[in-house]
Amino acid sequence: MKKSILITGAAGFIGSHLCERFLKEEWQVLAFDNFLSGHSNNISHLLSNKNFSFINYDVTNFMCSPQPISVVLHFACPASPVDYMKYPMETMKVDSIGTFNTIDLAKEHGARYILASTSEIYGDPLQHPQTEEYWGNVNPIGPRSVYDEAKRFSETITMSYFREYKLDTRITRIFNTYGPRMKAQDGRVIPNFVNQALKNSPLTIYGDGQQTRSFCYVSDLVEGVYRLATYDNLQGEIINLGNPDEYTIQKLVSIIQQEISTKSPITYKSLPTDDPRKRKPDITKAANLLNWSPQVDFKDGLRETINYFKSLL
Ligand code: NAD
Ligand code: UDP
């Protein structure tokens, strides 16, 4: 029997790269997306692949699978702060009802379940870098909570199925990931700065630009998720995946100015509420359990991303 995987959020940025990767490894891929924050362009090149089936569907509705499934990857959820604040109810539902629906399907099929969680569950962290043991510092009622708390609840659901039903669950906490197929108007910092620089429009730094992020190129992230989904004996594990190279937003602007010759001025805007001041993954666990570490240098990944956005102009 063919290895068969169900991927939600398949038409999104990361989901579409995951579909490609599993198809490359000869998996049968059953893909779900309702195009809330993704786009059909991200998967149109896969539709002719005989191992790829796509269903335009909101996974907060009842789910069943027309074929046996051995692994479920639940990646559906808006990830850009602009998107999840535009769709607060949809975000909370896909991380709660959508998580129940997809994990029940995994249980019914005796499938392994992989949840895409996020570094946002650490909130504005008081521990740096962030290890998986850290419980976080999250405002439960602020505008970001529709994402942060929803993802924390989706982790709770996942660990409860692991404890109650002995389901083979794994959680990855993904740190800022970038690359081709992010939306140009996504609102996240790399698509914003690159597109602003390409169009000579102002580079919008929020706050003083001293906040930090650590950026992981999408092929590195996909390799980590692939290993998490396919390695044995990882049931119940929670693993950070991200690149520990940490940059201030101010430094990011200067790197982008070096890579794109632009006339864009810098403009400062107010810092969004509860914007985390620093973020950097501790990836010791991923190194030990998955033998994984990021391979793509930031400037190399950035050039690929710039070329992608140039191709859309
Ligand atoms: P994305 O917005 O590009 O992709 C999410 C996809 O989920 C979209 O195609 C969207 O249409 C789909 N979707 C949303 N609600 C749905 C629903 N109810 N039913 C079916 N499909 C639905 O975001 P992304 O950057 O690819 O993120 C993918 C996953 O990874 C998310 O779960 C996100 O929380 C997680 N993550 C991403 C990052 C990152 O830096 N990209 C960081 C941390 C966590
Ligand atoms: N940011 C910025 N200018 C922008 C977009 C984002 O200065 O045009 C900042 C934002 O305030 C945050 C960081 O860049 O501190 C990363 O933001 P992003 O939305 O990419 O992801 P987050 O890590 O906040 O989810």
Describe, in plain words, how this protein is organized in 3D.
The protein has 313 residues and is α/β, with parallel strands linked by helices. It has one domain: 3-Layer(aba) Sandwich (Rossmann fold), CATH 3.40.50.720. It contains 9 helices and 13 strands. The strands form 4 sheets. A 7-stranded parallel sheet has the order 3-2-1-4-5-6-11, with helices on both faces. It is globular, with a radius of gyration of 19 Å.
What's the helix count? 9
Question: Helix coverage percent of residues?
Answer: 25-40%
Secondary-structure-based class equals alpha/beta
Number of strands: 13
Reported by name, the CATH topology is Rossmann fold
Principal-axes geometry comes out as: globular
Bound molecule types: nicotinamide-adenine-dinucleotide, uridine-5'-diphosphate
Q: Give the class-level CATH name.
A: Alpha Beta
Strand order of the largest sheet: 3-2-1-4-5-6-11
Amount of beta strand: 15-25%
Main sheet properties: 7 strands, parallel
Name of the CATH homologous superfamily: NAD(P)-binding Rossmann-like Domain
Could you tell me the mean pLDDT? Answer: 97
- Order of SSEs, N→C? EHEEEHHEHEEHEEEHEEHEHH
Distance N to C terminus: 44 Å
- CATH arch. level architecture: 3-Layer(aba) Sandwich
Radius of gyration: 19 Å
Which residues sit in consecutive blocks of at least 5 with pLDDT less than 50? none
What is the domain total for the residues?
1
